[in-house]
Design a protein that fits this description.
The protein is an alpha+beta fold. It folds into 2 domains: about 160 residues, 60s Ribosomal Protein L30, Chain: A (2-Layer Sandwich); about 150 residues, PurM-like C-terminal domain (Phosphoribosyl-aminoimidazole Synthetase, Chain A, domain 2, Alpha-Beta Complex), CATH 3.90.650.10. Helix content is about 30%, strand content about 25%. The protein is built from 12 helices and 12 strands. The strands form 3 sheets. It has a 6-stranded mixed β-sheet with strand order 8-10-7-11-9-12. Helix 4 links the parallel strand 4 and strand 5. Helix 3 packs parallel to helix 4 and helix 8 packs antiparallel against helix 12.
Length: about 350
Amino acid sequence: MAHKRWTYERAGVPHLKGDAAYNRKIAGLIRSTHVSGVMGNTLGFASLFDLKKSGIRDPLLVASTDGVGTKLELARLIGKHDTIGIDLVAMCVNDLICCGAKPLFFLDYYATGKFEPRTVGEVLKGVTDGCRQAGCALVGGETAIMPGFYGDRRAGQSAQYDIAGFSVGAVDRKKIVSGAAIREGDIVLGIQSSGFHSNGYSLVRRVFSEKELKGMIGRELLTPTIIYVKPVLKVLEKVRLKGIVNITGGAFYDNLPRVMPKGLTALIDSHAWEIPFIFRRAQKAGNISDFDMFKTFNMGIGMTLILGTRDVTKAQALLKTFRLKSWPIGKIVKGHKVEVV
């Protein structure tokens, strides 16, 4: 009896690098994001970027990496993957701008147990949409097919996959926003979120039933994360920002302390903005305490700016030109622990 003749393809890994049609498709998507400074072949081994073309006089490189977490499982449950890539870009570039940096380029990593062109294509389209929103270039990435490693298959759902993003930006040495200038009496200006963004989904998926997640609630929960790059950079041009805080994992209690000088903290007034109904619905469904809500979720505030009282009105006017609502939600006080009242 003859032994089977094995190939890499027969083991479950398609030969994508030799697929001309696939390469043309991804190369076109990548080129659609290119900005000044991108150099070289989009399908080469590595990517080149001319930092001199960033327009920054004395640039310092800034890097960030992140993923989307178990929001991916919601996307699989609903069968909608075209916004997940936007989330991926947002989770990285929204961190970059917290020090005043301008995102320059982005790379993605997609790993799955079975290559499904439609799913990969939707995710990649979202990544390119996100890059265009952020004004940065997608300069490359990796698609890893690992049969037997990602193995959760359910009828009617795509194969299990994971994604990670890597962004690089630059900031002028003299314009770094570090939090060092924050003083008692400064204002915390909160900018609206689009919902849960990409944090807390392990809890969200527990408190809502599968039927709810497959319906209108699930589709609302898939709303992509707002990319704050262009609005915040515009505010930075006109207003002195002392601190910029992305409200992600750990929400208010864990993120605001990252920029606080010693001896100062933030006092947040939870009545200063209208908390979106979806958050209260999740709280009721899971019998979640107020403390855990504000430690886990953004509660309708996706990004905060810390600035002097005289600059608040101007910053709000600039944010409004991007159709973003904002509210003075707190102030800087003496202390060591963030308080939400």
